[in-house]
Amino acid sequence: MTSSPDEAALWWATAVSHIEPGSIELRDRPVQDLIGRASLVDVIWLMLRGTTPSPPESALLEAALVAGVDHGPQAPSIAAARMAATCGIGLNNAVATGVNMLGDAHGGAGQQCVEMLTDIRTLHTSGLGWDDAAHEVMAAWQSRSRYLPGFGHRFHPVDPRSGPLLGLVRQAVADGVVGGDFLDGALAVEEALRRRRAGARPVPMNIDGATAVIYAELGFAAPLARGLFVLSRSVGILAHAWEESGQGRRNKGPLPRNVLPARLPQPKDP
């Protein structure tokens, strides 16, 4: 059986881009019309959504992306990229090593939080108040896990990134840029946790929760919350891998060479 050029073209047909000799179009926009006119954030929106954002939407998305860029070498994705950079591989491989560490437990909380906030909003739309909707969805999530995605931080008593982001969302709601339902749902969860943990260490919203509010308010699907976080964090991963590659170390491991891991006691034969 033979195939025609038209069949091959249909096989790879896409609305994302169109390439011909002398022509490059991104979502039907000639690339030369975007260069120098559209920001990278605008193009991210265009490629994912097929439209261009308003300036306030673009600014809100950019704030979320900036906030998630880096969280230091103790983050597994960044530690892995730094170690990989000393193993004789290329910079792209080191970045890929770090990005591939971003899974459900490390890097997936934003997506999970969007899913949780969407459930709360759905219940609220059906007639429940924000507090009751939050309690119901929180109970369902905590029946599966002790963690609520987007709330609490193992390192920061109060995440320094969440306050500025939530302030921008509040302003966007006041300006009519976004609706505010996802913000209200997230604040209802935060308040429920505050009341539940009266006298104990608070569990405020963290970066994953704050960016989840932004991504949801801007209309991004939950899986794209993780994808956008990956784009953001890859900048920090690249910076760390590049720095490490210039320090001359070879085969960097998780511990300094003069520190040996403790020998674990061997199990006794029964």
From TrEMBL:
GO-annotated cellular components: cytosol
MF (Gene Ontology): acyltransferase activity, acyl groups converted into alkyl on transfer; citryl-CoA lyase activity
Gene3D superfamilies assigned to the protein according to its UniProt record, in alphabetical order: Citrate Synthase, domain 1
Enzyme class, first EC level, given as a word: lyase
Protein EC: 4.1.3.34
Top-level division of the source organism's lineage: Bacteria
Keyword Lyase: yes
GO biological process: carbohydrate metabolic process; tricarboxylic acid cycle
Family: Belongs to the citrate synthase family.
PANTHER family xrefs: CITRATE SYNTHASE, CITRATE SYNTHASE, PEROXISOMAL
Protein known as: Citryl-CoA lyase
Organism: Streptomyces phaeolivaceus
